[in-house]
Design brief:
It is a single chain. This protein has 247 residues and is an alpha+beta fold. Helix content is 36%, strand content 23%. The chain folds into two domains: 74 residues, OB fold (Dihydrolipoamide Acetyltransferase, E2P); 163 residues, Up-down Bundle (de novo design (two linked rop proteins)). A hairpin with a 3-residue loop joins β2 and β3. α2 packs antiparallel against α7, α3 packs antiparallel against α4 and α4 packs across α5. The strands form two sheets. The chain has a five-stranded mixed β-barrel. The structure holds zinc ion (ZN). Zinc ion (ZN) binds next to β7.
Length: 247
């Protein structure tokens, strides 16, 4: 007898298999990032026909030799509004791919799932400039994965005073005594506060703040350049975003 298992999460990718089937990559609370095969999912009338990227809910599966197999699903949000707006959808695909890059099988990915959910809601509801949402999301993923820059003390001497510059080379803030001119940018107290907030705030509250244009510019510049230097993976969805002029 096979043991069915109910997992909760979000579909990151789908691909067609054979004539009638689909394969999904699902980020789940219980099993981390898993591959789920759905037999007959491309046949009209099949319950899994409507499933695709962004679908959030419950999936009943059983373990096969190489992947899990889908039995049935109960979807709580398809994010259809987002999926039907190309500008938003491409950002959404990028967020899914970015999360997929960090997620692994058999790990607890609850925080990453929660972050994706609030992020997709934020773009669906135009809660903030979509480019700012993107930079907040990226920094928060780095925070969840423990790869974030040191914005709590001087990355060179550990001092908590006179922090007025961010060093890309030293991966964090540097104090006035330690600053040199190589690869560094000035940073305001408000921008430091914003980085603290994104890194430490509860995921549900992550988009519940506002900043001035000046702080936004600084924050976005630092996150963008930091990612450029330290996250070297080529994201396919990012190439698409850039090719349609939406970066
Ligand atoms: Zn220092």
């Amino acid at each position: 007898m096979r043991d069915n298992l109910v997992v909760h999460g979000i579909i990151l990718f789908q691909s067609a298999v054979g004539e009638n089937d689909k394969r999904f990559v699902i980020l789940t609370r219980e099993r981390g990032k898993i591959t789920v095969f759905a037999r007959g999912a491309r046949r009209p009338g099949n319950q899994a026909m409507a499933l695709g990227p962004f679908a959030v809910g419950e999936f009943e599966v059983y373990e096969g030799r190489e992947a899990y197999n889908l039995v049935k699903s109960a979807i709580k949000n398809y994010f259809r509004e987002l999926a039907s707006d190309p500008g938003k959808a491409y950002y959404g695909f990028y967020f899914l791919e970015f999360a997929a890059y960090y997620a692994v099988e058999n790990a607890d990915e609850t925080e990453l799932i929660n972050l994706l959910y609030v992020t997709l809601r934020a773009i669906e509801r135009d809660r903030m400039d979509i480019n700012l949402i993107r930079r907040i999301f990226e920094l928060k993923v780095l925070a969840i994965e423990g790869e974030y820059p040191n914005v709590f003390e001087c990355a060179s001497c550990g001092s908590k005073d006179n922090l007025n510059a961010f060093s890309f080379k030293r991966r964090g803030l540097v104090c006035d005594k330690c600053r040199s001119d190589d690869d560094m940018t000035d940073v305001s107290g408000s921008c430091i506060y914003t980085m603290h907030y994104v890194i430490t705030a509860d995921t549900a509250q992550i988009y519940a703040f506002s900043i001035t244009d000046e702080v936004k510019k600084q924050f976005m510049y630092i996150v963008a350049k930091y990612l450029n230097m330290y996250v070297t993976h080529d994201f396919k969805s990012l190439e698409v975003l850039e090719s349609i002029g939406l970066k």
